[in-house]
User: Which sequence fits this backbone?
């Protein structure tokens, strides 16, 4: 039995059980030992969960790990160095986050990208061709530090105007996720074309960033997609003053000040949720808030009142 562990963002840990399904695992004698999101082990996140025990990496034959730039125990570099030193027989498959922040305002993983507000331009002044070429060049550089097929970047370059490849800057659509996992399968010596996948919905979808009218023209978008210039204008005008004050816009009507989330009289501080000045729950689990005594999921990740585009999920 080949024991595999995964460590990375949603592009790995949310999608693995779709691509590495029971049929694939049974035919290839594979068992998934763990699939861990890196951010819950980053001590700088407000939803930090616990320290990661490196011993888990001693129990696997293959590690599929997404490169990151963290400087803590969740650092991909530190984990890889540990595996090389302590588990010489392990096979390491390095991937990277496929991100494409081409929109006027992008999600960075911690909240909306502060730089997009600070460098705001009127929508008719954005050069999307220049922006597109820069992002393609950056992806090519990121891929040089992975075991992924560089042709994935070529696929994005050739097809961005023909198919919807990103619902927002960090979330590829199923079309692109398939290309990513095809390359991962190749590293596992598995031919993904031997398997049929039926998509009933997008594997990673929280919302869709609308295109702008100029983006459609500049990039010669050939498929039907709604555009909404007013979405970005309204959002910028709504949030620009908070950004100038140094606050982080995490979600609609949510402002982060000094690592405290304030929303409708619900304050989250140091993993303690307080509602109407009453402590509701002391040890809040990942991505949950308590509202009216009901635990609901929330996809908010915050780091020290700063949005960092590179350390994302």
Assistant:
């Amino acid at each position: 039995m080949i024991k595999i562990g995964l460590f990375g963002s949603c592009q790995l840990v949310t999608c693995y059980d779709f691509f590495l399904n029971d049929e694939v695992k049974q035919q290839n004698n594979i068992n998934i030992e763990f699939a861990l999101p890196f951010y819950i082990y980053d001590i700088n996140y407000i939803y930090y969960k616990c320290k990661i025990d490196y011993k888990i990496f001693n129990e696997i034959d293959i590690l599929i790990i997404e490169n990151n730039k963290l400087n803590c125990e969740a650092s991909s570099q530190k984990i890889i160095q540990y595996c090389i030193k302590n588990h010489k027989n392990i096979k390491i498959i390095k991937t990277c986050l496929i991100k494409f922040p081409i929109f006027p305002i992008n999600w960075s993983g911690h909240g909306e990208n502060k730089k997009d507000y600070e460098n705001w331009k009127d929508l008719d002044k954005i050069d999307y061709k220049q922006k597109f070429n820069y992002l393609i060049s950056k992806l090519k550089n990121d891929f040089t530090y992975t075991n992924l097929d560089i042709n994935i970047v070529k696929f994005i370059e050739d097809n961005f105007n023909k198919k919807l490849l990103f619902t927002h800057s960090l979330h590829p659509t199923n079309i692109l996720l398939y290309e990513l996992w095809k390359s991962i399968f190749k590293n596992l010596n598995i031919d993904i074309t031997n398997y049929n996948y039926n998509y009933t919905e997008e594997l990673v979808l929280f919302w869709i960033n609308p295109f702008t009218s100029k983006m459609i023209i500049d990039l010669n978008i050939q498929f039907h997609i709604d555009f909404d210039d007013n979405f970005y204008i309204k959002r910028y005008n709504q949030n620009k003053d908070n950004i100038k004050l140094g606050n982080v816009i995490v979600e609609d009507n949510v402002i982060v000040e000094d690592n405290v989330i304030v929303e409708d009289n619900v304050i989250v501080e140091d993993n303690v949720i307080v509602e109407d000045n009453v402590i509701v729950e002391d040890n809040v689990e990942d991505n949950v808030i308590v509202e009216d005594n009901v635990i609901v999921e929330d996809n908010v990740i915050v780091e020290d009142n700063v949005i960092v585009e590179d350390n994302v999920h």
